[in-house]
Specification:
Layout lengths: L1 H23 L6 H7 L3 H9 L23 H18 L1
Helix pairs in contact: 2-3, 3-4
Length: about 90
């Protein structure tokens, strides 16, 4: 039974990895920019968890948060990362 319950997570992991590889192919933007613009919530969370900066600008001077529609899930995640970083710098 345990193997069956892990199968969806493994499949989802492969799908996320495949999407991440696709995002890395374009050199004009950073992976977090692509993930944000595409509303790829899980990839945004993954990239932030491994150190991607929500402050990083692309070649057009835009941050990932400037590429998403306000008040979406991804926008909320990016805004929370920005607030957390700001609070950490004050500590």
């Amino acid at each position: 039974m345990k193997a069956e319950s892990k199968t969806p997570k493994v499949c989802r992991g492969f799908i996320l990895l495949s999407e991440l590889k696709h995002l890395l192919k374009n050199h004009n933007n950073k992976p977090l920019h692509h993930a944000a613009r595409g509303e790829h919530k899980e990839i945004v969370e993954l990239l932030l968890s491994i150190g991607a900066s929500p402050f990083m600008t692309n070649v057009y001077g835009k941050t990932p948060g400037q590429l998403v529609e306000a008040n979406t899930e991804v926008w909320t995640i990016l805004e929370a990362a920005i607030r957390a970083s700001a609070m950490a710098s004050w500590a």
